[in-house]
Specification:
Blueprint: H1 3-11, H2 18-29, H3 35-48, H4 52-63, E1 79-83, H5 91-101, E2 106-110, H6 120-124, H7 136-146, E3 148-152, H8 159-170, H9 177-190, E4 195-202, H10 211-227, E5 231-238, E6 246-248, H11 250-260, H12 266-282, H13 289-301, H14 304-315, H15 321-324, E7 334-339, E8 344-349, H16 351-361, E9 377-380, E10 387-388, E11 393-399, H17 402-414, E12 416-419, E13 429-433
Function: Catalyzes phosphorolysis of the pyrimidine nucleosides uridine, thymidine and 2'-deoxyuridine with the formation of the corresponding pyrimidine base and ribose-1-phosphate.
InterPro entries: Glycosyl_Trfase_fam3, Glycosyl_Trfase_fam3_N_dom, Glycosyl_Trfase_fam3_N_dom_sf, Nuc_phospho_transferase, PYNP-like_C_sf, PYNP_C, Pyrmidine_PPas_bac/euk, Pyrmidine_PPase_CS
Family: Belongs to the thymidine/pyrimidine-nucleoside phosphorylase family.
Amino acid sequence: MRMYDLIIKKRNHGTLSDEEIKFIIQGYTKEEIPDYQMSAMMMAIYFQGLNEQETLALTMEMAHSGDILDLSSIEGLKADKHSTGGVGDKTSLVLGPMIASLGIPIAKMSGRGLGHTGGTIDKLESFEGFHTSLTTKQFIDNVNKIKLAIVGQTANLAPADKKLYALRDVTATVDNISLIASSIMSKKLAAGADTIVLDVKTGSGAFMKTQEEAFVLAEEMVKIGQGAGKNTFAIISDMNQPLGNAVGNAVEVKEAIAALDGRGPQDLLELCLTLGSYMLVGTQKASTPEIGRKMLENSIENKSALHKFAEFIKAQGGNEKAVFEPELLPKATIIEDIYSPKAGYVREITTDEVGVASLILGGGRETKESKIDLSVGFKIKKKVGDFVQKGESLAEIHANDLRKLADAKERFINAYNFSEEQISTPTLIKKIVTKER
């Protein structure tokens, strides 16, 4: 078998067999196939596409190119959630404790953020002492004992995906649905859960800008998951404005705590209830999403989810008192209002720009070496559809540097567009994709 022949085959509309895909991925991972040949193959795939079987085979080979997390010693069916990313997305901080409080194991591998705001691990490090440096035994024991543990991604989790993504990034072959779906799902399959629920964002703050693109990606990933023997569901959710009201790290943690205490913003709660209800169906804890939703609502009402969050923080070395006293979390030295330059209804928020404003404050990373300021960010007061008077506060800005504050404030204001006509609130849940539809 020669890579040269396989490049020609795919270039000429041919279908690659499972064995041929195995040869390609194993050869590239072992550095037996050079970058220039793999670049040619990626470009051929970009133009000719992959069919359903090719996409599944590619995903499975990438998943098995490194470590597969063995969760067999964890009792019960395991669930995991993946988000395609957005601004103000703190769902894991709310959803994990809700699900764990109902006895469903969540053994999660999360990354750090690169871009707008920190990742889940960065946000959790707002709790003094919190760490993710657990041994495999500690990780498994924590999940068996309290049903929730989060660790950083291992260096050897789907290494073929890391190599391929770096190559695609510099050869203009990133935005192909099959390659995007394989990249995401290879890591999820390697992480070992039985049920996978995907939160596919769409809109100005998402990778998939249109609902149509998001649906195609969601459908592709559900097919991969089901083909790999996992109960897989996808929720397509709106990212044409930040999720919830907080954007940053510690400010998002405080909002997650409020949500677990029944005081959070409605859109954040609604998304968590929707995602969680399908996690419960997939793990056979609930027979329907409606029953699952009621169970999750009860976990908020009886405070079991909030107490589970505190238990989880303590188990990983963090100061659990901050769950009940959020004022112990990092605070910025400068807190100011951002005033609206005009009156009208909020017509649009360019969500990416809000993310960039948070990055300017120090709330995200421009490079892997950047140090995050956990205390900075925004508390948004006006969202799409809201009426605002000229001079009324759009948001609260939390900063530690006056120059960064000025730049971020200007960026934030420019993200808002206004209308004289009343604007309807955007629908949060756009579509739900299951194996049946």
